[in-house]
TrEMBL record:
The species this protein was found in: Chryseobacterium camelliae
Alphabetized PANTHER family for the sequence: ABC TRANSPORTER ATP-BINDING PROTEIN ALBC-RELATED
Keyword Zinc belongs to the record: no
Molecular function GO labels: ATP binding
Pfam hit, one: ABC_tran
Record-given protein name: ABC-2 type transport system ATP-binding protein
UniProt keyword Translocase present: no
Residue stretches making up the ABC transporter domain: 2-187
InterPro entries xref list: ABC_transporter-like_ATP-bd, ABC_transporter-like_CS, ABC_Transporter_VariousFunc, P-loop_NTPase
Length: 194
């Protein structure tokens, strides 16, 4: 989706712009896939300012933006005097996710956002995603193996198996059970095939 890997067939387009033919889509999209998206030798503040500059934000606007994450950062990220590489995996993930939100992108792609986070931070992140998703024109694309968290924050869930779309569900109160049944059936089918 981010033109990181060339497809063997087909293409991805954002607003009718093929991502492998133009970079015009990049101003609308932000992502945090893994810690390779971070710059380990920067402090979190330096990283946020760098991302802000890429997205047309000055330091003052980035500082103002970061105030809303005081609770999420839990006093462990800003003004810690640490480089990103010296933060815990969970705190690195917080830096990456918040960095992806800087500049109000329309599409925010997160891969396994709840992994390596303690339970209270997972709840804070779920609340953050829900709140930002309410804003007009903001879409989160979350790739996750965690069915419980995913069903709590997503209003639509797409299941892809070996490159094929196998389920497209508008989230409802029974979605988690529906997905659990689907995956249980897949386990049973694979056991029967062996």
């Amino acid at each position: 989706m981010l033109d990181l890997i060339q497809p063997t067939t087909g293409y991805v387009s954002i607003d009718d712009i093929k991502v492998n033919e133009s970079e015009a889509w990049k101003s609308k999209v932000a992502a945090f896939v893994d810690d390779s998206f971070l710059i380990g030798y920067l402090t979190p503040e330096e990283y946020f300012y760098f991302i802000g500059e890429l997205r047309g934000q000055n330091k003052a606007s980035v500082d103002e933006f970061l105030k809303q994450f005081h609770d999420l950062f839990n006093g462990e990220i800003l003004n810690s005097g640490k480089y990103i590489r010296d933060l815990s995996k969970g705190n690195q993930k917080k830096v990456g996710i918040v960095g992806a939100i800087i500049g109000n992108p329309e599409i925010i792609i997160l891969d396994e956002p709840f992994a390596n986070l303690d339970p209270s931070t997972q709840i804070k992140l779920k609340n953050l995603v829900k709140e930002l998703s309410k804003q007009e024109g903001v879409t989160f694309l979350i790739s996750s193996h965690d069915l419980s968290h995913t069903t709590e924050v997503c209003n639509r869930i797409v299941v892809v198996n070996k490159g094929q779309l196998v389920k497209d569900i508008q989230t409802h109160p029974e979605t988690l059970k529906e997905l659990e049944r689907y995956f249980a059936d897949q386990v049973n089918l694979s056991g029967e095939l062996n």
